[in-house]
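Below: protein 1.
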Amino acid sequence: MRSFAALTWALACCLPLAETKAVFAHFTVGNTKLFGLGDWQNEIQLAQSAGIDAFALNMAQGDTTNDVALPLAFSAAASLGFQLLFSFDYAGSGPWDKSVIISMINEYGAESTYGKRGQKPLVSTFEGPSNAGDWQEIKAATDCFFIPNWSSVGARLAVKLGGGVADGLFSWDAWPKGPANMTTYPDASCNGPRGILQLAGDDSTSTLNLEKKRKDKRLWQLASILILAGALVWVRC
């Protein structure tokens, strides 16, 4: 399996390069300690050959790899017409300092290679619901469009955290746990609040056609169901 392809997701109207939906791959920056510019370019070219438009860069707080990797990643993306966005990991090494997040978004968010929804830099997290209150200040300082993963608390609570700070949600709760079959519970928890709509069926075998900018159609396996104002769909290969 190619290293970038562990998980992909699609966002409607988020990137200027996409007419309808753009496909993102979750990419763990902590695995790139020994990467040079050519390695980043190779990963991006592999992603592009699979029809992927952007990497969501998962980063643990305090990881010095981030400082080395980000300039290389953005340089490689600019040379190849690719997009990147930040996914701040609160589970790997603990919560992020909000001042560091603000600094990083303001440094990179205006780049043409940074993924946006409209003019707003798109920002995500892996967990971190206990720090939801930080994001009111972060959003005010960066004008970002915020779509966290707070699956550990469930969607009904997640949309209320931090005074309803999330602009949308995504979920990692999309696959069977060990020998247990997938149920409709994760989907059902997403009905109702703040316009979140249910798309998935009763298992992880539903399919979704994504119309790509090149007008070709790729069939993706629908993996999750969290949508706010038609903005977000998680899929996996």
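Below: protein 2.
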Amino acid sequence: MPRSTKKKSKFVGMRLSEKQNEALSRLQKDSKASKSDVLLRGLELLSEYYSLDLDKPPLSFDLRSLETEAMHLAESLKQVRDKKQAIHQMVQELAAVDRILDKYDGRENALIQVLLDIQTENHWLPKPALIWASERLNVPLSRIYHIATFYKAFSLEPQGRHAVQVCLGTACQVRGAKRLLDNVISVLGIEPGQTDDKQKFTLSTVNCLGCCALGPVMRIDGQYYSKPGLKDIEKIAAACD
């Protein structure tokens, strides 16, 4: 006879045992809270636990996975955090996703708008946020990633709060676009395609910004700057919060 296996259910991108799922369901019923609320509270308690410098607590598989995601996220953003800080940040970010989802009443057909709002909130689409949205909307994570990679408006990599673009089109090239790009690289300390460690700037190059007569041109957050020199770029960068 085939070997029987316990049925497991998917939650927040992880697999819960039948016993764990039943426990979460009881908590949900008793407290009138959603399963995501229960896990968020668990993360908050975990953050408080670490603040007391106690030994590592026993964690359910789902909380341990979220803890791991919190640390990975902090590392990917090059932010040095202890576990308490990383988990606290995770709680805040997932709570923000909850607010976005609630705004659209958790409707599956609002997925693209939800992703746009998450992108606006974070300047990119963090993996934990996508996992959370997948569970809340009951949408396969693979579908969310398909949408996120199809539309150029979305980014799966951390982006700076300010998008800096330098035009390398022909008209700008003959007017000194290379020197402009070198100056921007010097001021920001990053190459095209990179984001600085503080997630303040993301630098990219484009083939045309549609204002050839003003070249060489750079654009920051939709604002155009014609023929900026090194000192101009330094002042512009300093003015960005």
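The chain is about 55% helix and 10% strand.
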